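Lab notebook, bench 4. We co-purified these components, and the gel suggests they stay together. Before we commit to crystallization screens, I want a quick structural picture of the whole thing.
Request: model the full complex, all chains together.
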Amino acid sequence: MTDPLPKYDAPPVIETVLCAQFARLANFTGAVAGWFWKGRLGSDWTKTKTAVRLEDQFERFGEERRPELPGIRFYSGDQPDRTQIIRSDEERMIQIQDSRFILNWRRGTGGYPSYEKLLPEFRGSFQKFSGFAAEADLGEIQVNQWEVAYVNTLDKGEMWESPADWPTILPGLYTPLTWGTGPIETHNGEWKFVIGKDRGRLYVSLKHGRTSMDGPDTLFLQLTARGPVDAERDQTLEDGLNIGHEVIVRSFTAMTSPEAHKHWKRRC
Amino acid sequence: MSAVASILWTGIPGGQLSAQSAPVSVDSKVSTEWRRRRHELIEIRKYRVNWDGFDSDPPDPAVVDAAISFLHVLEKRQPSNPPLRVALAPDGEIAIEWHLYGTFTRAEIANLDQVEWMIATPGRETSFEVESLRSEGSSAYKRDTSDITSKGPGSTL
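Here is the predicted assembly.
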């Protein structure tokens, strides 16, 4: 992986996610989230919402890989919800819960700011949260997983008119032969890959839908990379995020066609 | 609390396209298995005395209801792993069982207070755990259950 990372001037990405998952903070509550919001974030973080708590996710490999047993999960007291803190321009959102810190970028009037800009933002705000957690007696943040996600949309009319055109954008997309039918009407799929030598997993999801009731048909292409953070194995959070980003960008480039790259103004 | 939990901000149709859901996507076959187990518990609830031909007592409907509610909780926790089967023991105990990757797991519900878990893996010591259904430590269970039972103002559950 020594080639320069592909870059696009007009990528189809509409959202990115950078996430650190950590061991549960037993004393974390919604009030603590509010304290962090008002005490540590600037005045441009103007709105909050409450969302359903995300379950912890772990990528396991080899001997560690075991079935996710349905039971044997013990909860102490009420589980706090997830708090979403939104910046006034609605292009950034910080999500915090007792076991996750997440930075979302969503496409607004500005273009995609690039990973090189988002990573320092994530690093800075997560450091603020880690410091806050220590001062608020929540305990030390012990990160156990990293996660990166990119959501891309390919609207009908831009590069495709019908699902039969999709292979021109995604050449590896396989359409089985049928008899007595018209052309393919729709397709949804999910794929899962191990990254490197058990460094994480890449999830690729392709969905056909619409962004709104009256919006155009859209192909949603989501790439999510996730993996472990383990100090004993020298697997750091930031290394994981960088690996996840690189795997996502290179995989996106590999799975899409040169014609599509041209449409998205690939630079290198 | 009934919305699909998603790490994403953008509104993806159906709420299905999420980083959270990607590794735990549930196909229709899996959903069918969960429905089947629920249906089997509902059928067990109808059993009468001598249901097994050995004069066994009928199951306590409250215990069966607790098992059905707990099954909902399990589906929320691990939607991709429906149980292999449910069973009623002659003493009225409800068992929910899995056999995954060589590990046998059984959740036994004998009363309204707790679930007893048994996990057996060849070559390892069998482990037993108890999960309370009533104590403070089970608030997640109670909350999830209330989500399921509170279907609206008309709900009598």
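DSSP finds three helices and five strands in chain B. Worth comparing against the SEC data before the next meeting. Chain B touches chain A at residues 1, 3-5, 7-14, 16-20, 22-23, 25, 74, 77-78, 80-81, 83, 98, 100-101, 103, 105, 107, 115, 117, 119, 129, 131, 136-141, 143 (CB under 8 Å).
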